[in-house]
Amino acid sequence: MIATLIISIVTFISITLSILFFPSITIKEKRISLYWVIALLGAIVLVATTLVPINELGNSLFSNSEINPLKILVLFFSMTLLSIFLDEAGLFHYLANKALKLAKNNQYILFIVLYFLTASLTVFTSNDVVILTFTPFICFFCKNAKVKPVPYLVAEFAAANTWSMMFIIGNPTNIYLATSANISFIEYFKVMAIPTIACGLIELLIILLIFHKSLKEKMDITIDDYKIEDKLELIFGILHLGVCLVLLVISNYIHFEMWLIALGSALSLFMAILISRIIRKKNLRKLPTTFKKLPWQLVPFILSMFTIVVGLNYQGISAKIGEFFGNDLLIIKYGASSFLASNIINNIPMSILYSNLCNTLSGSSYLKAVYASIIGSNIGAFLTPLGALAGIMFTSLLDAYQVKYGFKEFVKYGLIVSIPVLACALLILFLFI
Q1: Tell me: the pLDDT tens digits for 85-121?
Q2: I need a labelling partner for 38 at 20 to 30 A (CA). Which of 94, 218, 328, 383 fits?
């Protein structure tokens, strides 16, 4: 037990230190992020020393259950693929241009429009996709308009990691924790809709109060007309995402697993695009670029962290932590601790660990702990850049675009925004569940 705990803690600390001080290495002009390499090494050590027996890991990886990590990865990647395709088809760029035109050089209007655009896209796609696609746009227009980018970056990141609570598909952590509890799409939405909307509005008010002076400054930006290159493909993408969301909503009633619905939608879209391009004699080379943009590093990272958690569970460590939490004040304990744990070990491994902690409970206590952990995993993401993979990608993009927004500044605004938002979400959960 002690050996497993030591290896796990060393792995978690090493991941954190690598993200802070040495995030990547370059081998033959190829940049490799170290966080997933460290996680993989930790998992290999546990398996090699038989602290995680191969048969135990195999049973967990290939079990016919909702928390099978392979099913969750398929669900997440399929939804991400649909979203990336829509981005490549020009939907996000087109909507962003419309937002700039609507603002008419008024920063207040632009700020609010972009906030709700980010929120809306997050609800129907995912927080990671929005961060990847909107961050470069914000950096570009702020440089063009000669306005401070920080207010927009704070709003974008906070919105993406708050409104991601609305649907199961908004965040990989939602998927894992909710499916581990066998919570359906509609059941999840019924509980999380009100906390998400309330937190989103409170968050917007806080950010407006923080940056109201900056937003008073005038801006002057030239907006080029942006046209969708291939409207047919965009229609295909929107239809497939729409049908997919409808089927996910009714998945519990049609007795079809969510990962199969998402995978079927992604495969159907790309078959439709392939056939369409062949008929219209269009270039097929662009199709693989969508697959290249997928966050493939998540695969070894999630599977490695899952292996570590299997070890903690197998050695009885998860059960002991669950017993330590007890059965009272569950929403506060699980919500606050998951919020902090996300920023120590990242929210994906945190969600894997907490799904096991919640298993020590039953009935309404179990559901309270699961939903509180989901809230902590989402809101914890904007306390520090370590809280989520979205934060790691976000800071990497800012470095690439030479935008100054350091760790201290991130944490300063993260504390101001995330603490009241977390308190609001947990209070509403307490009142409604």
Answers
A1: 888 888 888 887 777 777 777 888 889 988 998 999 8
A2: 383
Sign, Cα dihedral of 373, 379, 385, 390: positive
CA distance 413 to 406: 11
Strands 30-33 and 24-27: antiparallel
- CA Rg, the chain, in Å? 21
Phi first, then psi, for residue 156 (nearest 5°) are: -60, -50
3-state secondary structure of 322: helix
> Nearest 5°: phi and psi at 25?
-125, 155
| Residue-wise pLDDT tens digits, 233-288 | 899 999 999 999 899 888 878 888 888 998 999 999 999 988 888 888 887 666 77
Helix axes 54-61, 298-314, angle to 10 degrees: 120
Question: Which pair of structure tokens corresponds to residue 323?
Answer: 């017993």
What is the C-alpha to C-alpha distance for residues 49 and 245, in angstroms, rounded to an integer? 43
Q: What pTM was computed for the model?
A: 0.84
Residue 187, C-beta contacts closer than 8 angstroms, at least 6 positions apart: 252
